[in-house]
Amino acid sequence: MNRWLSSLLATLVLIAMLQSSSPFLHRFHPLLSTKSSSFRRVKSITSLHYKNLTSTPYTADSSAAAIQRVDDEGGKNKFKVVSNFEPSGDQPKAIRELVSQLSNPSNKYTTLKGITGSGKSFVMSHTIAQLQKPALILCPTKTLAAQLCRELRSFLPHNAVELFVSYYNYYTPESFIEASNTYIAKKSSINDEIDSLRHRATRALFTRSDVVVVASVSCIYGLGLPADYLDAARDIQVGARGDIHFYKDVLNKMLYSTPEDNWGVKRGEYLANYQNNTIKVWPPYEVEPVQVEFDQATGTVSKIIRVTPTTESDEGIDLASPASFKASDLKSESLDNYYIYPARHFVTKKSRIEEACNEIEKEMGQQVQKLRHVDFNPEAAYRLEKRVTNDLLLLRETGFCSGVENYSRHLAGRAAGVPPETLLDYLKFSGSNGKGSTSSGKKEESDWLLLVDESHVTLPQLKAMYHGDRARKMSLVKNGYRLPSAFDNRPLQDSEFWERIDQAMFISATPGKFERELSPDGGVDMLIRPTNIVDPEITVRPTKTQLKDLLLEIEERATRGEKTLAMALTKRDAEDMSSYLIEHGAKATYIHSDLNTVERADALKSLQNGTIDCLVGVNLMREGIDLPQVSLVAIMSADCEGFLRSETALIQMVGRAARNVNGNAIFYADKVTPSMQRCLDETERRRYRQIEYNEVNGLKPISTTGSEIKSIFDIFREEANTESLSNSVEWSRMPKKDVSYASPKPSLDPTITELVYNLPAKPGIYKWYANKEDRFPLYIGKAKDLKKRCKNYLTGKDSRPRINKMMEGVKWVEVVITPSERDALHLEAKMINLLQPPYNVCLKDDASFPYICASTPRENQYGVLPKFERVPRKNFKTNPNFDYEYFGPYASSFEVDKILTNAENDYSLRRLAFEAKNGENKESSSVRYMENFENCKAELFELESKGYIGEGVGSAHSPIDLLFDEETNYSRDVVALAPLKKGEVLVKVLQLRKGIYRGSFDYRLTLPDSGDEEHHADAIYKALESHYHDDSKRVSDDYDHKPEFVMTQLPLDREANKIIKSLLNKGTTVRAPRKSGTNKNTDNVAMEFAIENTNAAAEQILEIMPPSMTQRGTTVKQIKERQASLQSMLNLTHVPRVIECFDVSHHAGEDAVCSRVVFKDGRPHKELYRQFNIKSFTGNDDYRSLTEVLKRRFARVNGDSEGEGDGEEAWQVPDLVLIDGGKGQLNAALKGMEEAGVGVVNAVAASNSTTNRAVNMCSIAKKNEEVYTYVEDGTRQIVNSEPDEAGVLMLREIRDESHRFAVYNMRRRRKKRMMSEN
């Protein structure tokens, strides 16, 4: 009863506050303002239970509905440090001084000068707890941020300690290199796990006041409007009106997507089950999805289920221990309401997108005019107009485009020059008094604390971010790749950042000048460690014997169970030193920035668990290292003055041995530099103070035990175990395949469906067009199987909304067949970069295919060794002191790196180079290196001369085909021919420019009556004459339509060659492919490419002939009408239900085949189709071919064992035999049947037949579609018929199908033969 009264009282008080619109509301959450549109969605405030208003411990899965949660003391949760240790050493004094300075409003900055191992994280936690302020802690790297976040969570277990770092696995920014005229597109990969942590951080800032956010410098980049993010949030309540369709729209507006395979959801996705009437949604900040169930009868929400960790004690489960986080620690919980935030931080209303597009269009017009008429750069103006127009097309249709962040100023509605909203703006929603931006947009004083960890590194990063971003975008805007508004998609300037900071504390063992000048009295010193360990003693040793000396030191410490850190000067030196140590018996590995986060953590773990004795790095300052096992830090080449050997760097590196009582440091140097001397002096000063303190207080140094090394991903998995734990809760699992989840198919044009189903199943690229006549495609892609890949676009299962939207407007597809999938990759990249299709996101840059460069120094360069390296293009190196030789190009940098790695291993190049630089016998190592280098180079030359890198050094794939090499095919047209129907051919002219396929033109020509193949060369001539007469036939204006070289499949006669040359530029060559010499391989590759694509185009034309009875659209009635017409026309005794047709095809007398197709009741029966290879002779003779084939076919009727056969049905006598051709072909077929012992009805020649079997026979000639048959006197007679008569149409369609099948098999046989010959 008392609880019910308390709940009612709390509710009444809350309602009263709402009605009075008191500013006190902001202690709860800005959403509780009556002016907020988000609050108007809350259906009933009485549904908020009192238990949700009480203070509860924070857990990994605290409900988003906790926006209403406050405690009884001042409306906030308290920071409280939990630890088994009390502050000791210099820590108590440092905490007092820091709190005193930061409690004074006049002191804006202070510095904590804490040496390595002095417990700075512990002091930071106590300072935050005593000040009771939310805090933002900046770290220089992701790994340091993750390690610090883990430590602070152990000290502040009841408070919200969140991680906010860049969510990119890798990131290459968009840029334009003016020196080489190269555009590099943005390349990135987002890590969903880290993105989830970012969402958890912003949610905590909205829902709690006891928040510590540990962030990298990425927090100063734009994050989207906090007001828009909050306004898009939604409170889902049990009993609220709305069905499954309504909440699908809600989630779509909140930028949640649907999974690709309709099986299981990932963070930021939802899945609607229409059978069970449920939606499963996984907010990016939750451990597991939330399931919302609907009552179909009432159209309301009936149930909300969420999985949470058990919280039976105040501490709940131990999230710092992965072993404790398992299914038994989870429970399913039914909620009355659930507050869900958007799936992305960037949320833009649809109405705002259209306004932004109009503003972008206006800015584009102004900038295009400036580029044309002020900067006199029409190329940049054209580029900018095309790029922005494509982006606007996608923005209006899908709300997204590649590089959409560059339009953030327009999408957010900001004025030019106004800084973007960042994480710092989200911090305004947290604070000691809940202050922040009100719903009216008015700013209030924020009350939070900034802590900058490793400030000597972090502060320069903050300052450099803006200037680096601006310099990169200057060239992009200048050259027409971006609009000027892209400048406003930027990080905060240094001054803008500090304007948003009220108080800051800098933390560093070696603070810089900036921190020292701002801090009162120089800051707070922490020289005494809680473990009483003194700084390592430093000794200086010569470099001559440094490697041998280091091996002895490692071995000595290994016997005591201690470890060594060796600091090289470069990443390559670190790798080579690691190899050298391993070869000489030491257990070692290396670590540097080229390793990913997990690999770096694994390297540190291997040192920690005793797998290795020495870890070689560059400076190891980027890692959050706690390694008390390390008793020696060896710094190689310590006298090389510079950033990595500065006073600050040396002190930081020496500090890595300050957790072990036996810690020492060795500087290998031949002289003492000023930086070394300052480091020695500072270390001696610290040691004196520390030793004195220990002696006065009678203290003894103690080595620490250290903490386990974890990567950022390990830390995340401690917080939210990614293993699916849903089986432990009670909710309905979704079936693996269920039509209720199927995405709707896009509305497609019927023509495109027919085109796709007739594509070849071969590797190549495909181009989607809005119309057949368009010059520029909408999208370009590659495929191993063109037919299969393009068919996938028709299903509507593509997870990319822009692609599904594109397919609704597609009406044409063009394909280009390539020799291999790898060649398709090259061609795709070049064509996307050239044509810039609007729906392509990647590969729009000028990145070229890499080469291997062998650089050899010329004379008088003592100590400089030759080397192999990867370069982006040929002639990249220009140093006059070196000679350069190039190998390649290669498909990817990965292939080149693999080849170089194998070469260096096979010939020991890296080991010898390292010994030549650092070993005792430098001259001997140099000589051996030079010999091995020359041998390796000779092997590369030999392998490349054979056209592949397949064995030995490379062990990789072959180089890119000469087809796509810029020098080989700089300006070439390749002309090929393929037969269509009888007497008709297709001539294709393919244009190759600078190694890129620019386009092709098709010409359908009719041959004279007297033959086929002998007129093919004449057909090529006529096609070229027409092609070059019309100079308007070009794909683009940026290249010459007329090439420098024309290569034809068949040689032209002298007169035709002369005429074609007269139509081209002076000096143009016109010839057939070379059969020998240096150009043989190049010509063959290009011609095969042309022939393959010409054949594919011909097959597609044959497949999509005008509608015929071979298609499913022909009715039974129409077929019967045609059969009756044919019976009457040929005077047949019965209806011709089964018809066989024969046709011969060959290529210049080679690869001859004859086809047989079978139609039953007007339908093709492809299982009865047969291919006959001509066996009795070679050459160009259709008559002999028909005689041979008809004999072999009908010999099977009489049971002749020489006849082909694979079943009774395949060889039954048909009702009618049709021959493709005229009188000559009919005579030849009759001869073959006579030899097989089968007669022809009503034919005199059949009277000598040895069997009673007889068959009706006729032929149809191409000219005028004339039909021939026999009469009683043995003569041949033209049937009195019209070409469009129903019976003739039936014969024509069967004849065309037989011709198609014959051509197809001839091409297949020819390709097989050529591959065998090659």
Mean pLDDT over the residues: 77
Taken as a percent bin, the fraction of beta residues is 15-25%
According to CATH, what is the class of the domain at 1116-1317?
Alpha Beta
Total DSSP E strands: 44
Treating each run of at least 4 consecutive H or I residues as one helix, how many helices?
34
Give the structural class.
alpha/beta
Our measurement of the CA-to-CA distance between the termini, rounded to an integer number of angstroms, reads: 94 Å
From the 3D coordinates, which CATH architecture of the domain at 1116-1317 would you assign? 2-Layer Sandwich
Could you give me the name of the CATH homologous superfamily of the domain at 1116-1317?
UvrC, RNAse H endonuclease domain
CATH fold category name of the domain at 1116-1317: Nucleotidyltransferase, domain 5
**CA-based gyration radius:** 40 Å
Characterize the biggest β-sheet.
9 strands, mixed
Helix content: 25-40%
Contiguous runs where pLDDT drops below 50 for at least 5 residues: 1-75, 311-328, 431-445, 715-744, 948-960, 1105-1113, 1201-1205, 1242-1252
> What general form does the structure show?
elongated
